[in-house]
């Protein structure tokens, strides 16, 4: 009698172990391309923040020049703002490419 209960207990443990193994194998992990796409999407927030700050700084310097409060030139700020604008465009293109890569792999 005890042998039967011991076997049924072992069978129950094996079934539970098989169930856990099956659940673990059902979990899908992100591919490297999916991680890259996600990172690119997060990166756009950084670039947009820097671009926003560069536009704010450009307007501040422009207003200070108009009021005669500074002897700075506006050229460096124009170059910085233009660079960040191009960086936004490049980051958006990189995001599009990364998402397209994920779509191709799925």
Give a concise summary:
Residues 1-28 are annotated as: Disordered. With 106 residues, this protein is mainly alpha-helical. The chain is built from three helices and no strands.
Can you describe what's shown?
About 85% of the residues lie in helices and about 0% in strands. The protein is built from three helices and no strands. It has helices at about 1-25, 30-65, 75-105. With about 110 residues, it is mainly alpha-helical. It is rod-shaped and about 95 Å long. The protein starts with a helix and ends with a helix. It folds into two domains: about 1-30; about 30-105. The mean pLDDT is about 85.
Radius of gyration using CA atoms only: 29 Å
Secondary-structure class: mainly alpha
Low-pLDDT ranges: none
Task: Round the mean pLDDT to the nearest integer and report it.
Answer: 86
- How many strand elements? 0
Q: Give the overall shape.
A: rod-shaped
Region (Disordered): 1-28
Biased composition (Low complexity): 1-25
Keywords:
single chain, 106 residues, 2 domains, 87% helix
Task: Summarize the topology.
Layout: H1 2-26, H2 32-67, H3 75-105
